[in-house]
Design a protein that fits this description.
The chain is an all-alpha fold. The protein is 74% helix and 0% strand.
Length: 442
């Protein structure tokens, strides 16, 4: 272990270097530095990585070789895409680690597990969705650990299976409604003519309806398993108020930076999350505590998937766009058909283990470049809803694998078999709405 310590320190330092480069992205040369730091961090962590991230990064290497032979100019844009999204993910992960040290999260997650079956399902689903705004996958680990503890103490039951459904679905809608999610960020980045409020005003109601619809696909629970709601007077609602205030502050920072100062949405999210991280550090110092710096030695899997997928998508998009004529003679009826197909493309690719970042980058990079500007909201809606449904309805999603480790329920059961009907219904509605929006606006 002592021999590995310098290697782990180097990997963590490279991840922090990639994050700093993303923060200083407005300076010349920073995007190239960030992409290089991400690549080195992945290479040094190769032995500890899972199979899928390795494959994604290897394909990114082939994409680099292709770009060198085809058009080296592709590399700069792909490296910028890689650095920007890797920095975003690192900032969100760092925020998640900082917040994970607080006692508020445990109180919040514990308070969600109680009451009658429908109330418990909705509490867990909406609570996980709320916690996932700043925590991303950390929300699954925090709330899922409570479900896992229930299984270990009381055994498998309809209530724990329904709780697992709620956690997976609650996180699954995060890509659809969270202003900080990589799906929303990537969509707004690739579709610059689409406004964030314009998109979120449509996707947030869809997310709410989708979670309520999940009540239809839950198991009936016997009366003997109904638990009373436990309210701690000492804790009260203070943890929830503090947590919601933090979320509102981060989201307000994102909208201020992206609208008032005209920064790119991905850059605004990175800066806003880092502002919260720095604020937490300053608060800790004021309280005369000095928590250790969060290690980022074990983020190679995430960097390989996010950075590699972003690079692959950018290169493929540039190559395809190079073959498309500037004057497309496309019949108007084709745009609604394409919009309807996008959510299904996400889901089918997810069933094959393809990360949604790849499909999102391809859909936004290729279709976004030729899509009629007045109908961009239809394409954007299709992208984020397809991404969200894929997140809870496919067994290769990271949140399904995390829940499998915490609860013991197989990912193929918890995500696919238990929620297939909900996923297919959601895809059908999302496709119809995306096509309808496009048909009306184009």
């Amino acid at each position: 272990m002592q021999r590995r310590a310098p290697l782990l320190l180097t990997r963590s330092a490279l991840a922090y270097l990639a994050l700093i480069a993303a923060i200083l992205a407005l300076l010349p040369g920073m995007t190239g530095l960030g992409a290089a730091a991400v690549s080195l961090a992945v290479i040094l962590g190769w032995r500890d990585m899972r199979l899928v991230p390795r494959v994604v990064f290897l394909v990114a290497g082939f994409a680099l070789a292709f770009a060198l032979g085809r058009d080296p100019g592709m590399i700069a844009a792909a490296a910028e895409n890689m650095s920007r999204l890797a920095g975003l993910v690192l900032a969100v992960m760092l925020l998640s680690s900082v917040l994970g040290r607080t006692s508020d999260l445990q109180k919040i997650s514990t308070s969600l597990f109680g009451g009658r079956p429908r109330v418990r399902y909705l509490s867990l689903a909406f609570g996980t969705a709320m916690v996932s705004i700043p925590l991303n996958f950390g929300s699954v680990a925090v709330v899922g650990s409570v479900v896992g503890e229930r299984i270990r103490s009381n055994g498998d039951s309809p209530s724990t299976r329904n709780a697992t459904r709620a956690v997976l679905r609650g996180f699954g809608v995060s890509p659809t409604f969270s202003p900080l999610s990589i799906s929303v960020v990537l969509t707004l980045t690739l579709l610059p003519g689409l406004g964030s409020l314009q998109l979120l005003m449509l996707t947030i109601p869809f997310s709410i309806v989708l979670l309520f619809s999940g009540l239809v696909w839950c198991e009936p629970e016997p009366e003997s398993e109904i638990e009373p709601v436990k309210v701690e007077v000492s804790g009260g609602l203070a943890p929830w108020f503090r947590f919601c205030a933090l979320i509102l502050a981060i989201c307000a920072g994102v909208f201020l930076l992206s609208h008032q100062f005209q920064l790119s949405y991905a850059y605004a999210v990175t800066l806003s999350c880092m502002g919260a991280v720095i604020g937490a550090r300053l608060l800790a110092w004021c309280r005369r505590t000095n928590p250790p710096l969060v290690s980022m030695a074990n983020v190679s899997n995430e960097l390989a998937i996010v950075g590699g997928s972003a690079f692959i998508g950018a290169v493929i998009s540039a190559a395809v766009l190079g073959q498309i004529s500037g004057d497309l003679n496309v019949p108007n009826w084709l745009w609604p058909v394409l919009a309807a197909a996008v959510p299904w493309a996400f889901f089918i690719a997810g069933l094959g283990g393809v990360n949604p970042i790849v499909i999102g980058t391809l859909a936004g990079g290729i279709l976004g470049a030729v899509w009629p500007e007045n109908g961009l909201v239809g394409l954007g809606f299709a992208m984020v809803t397809g991404w969200g449904i894929t997140a809870f309805g496919t067994p290769f999603a990271a949140n399904a694998l995390i829940m499998e480790r915490l609860t013991g329920y197989k990912a193929v059961d918890a995500s696919l078999r238990w929620s297939l009907s909900l996923a297919l219904s959601g895809l059908t509605v999302a496709s119809a709405l995306a096509a309808g929006l496009t048909l009306v606006l184009v």
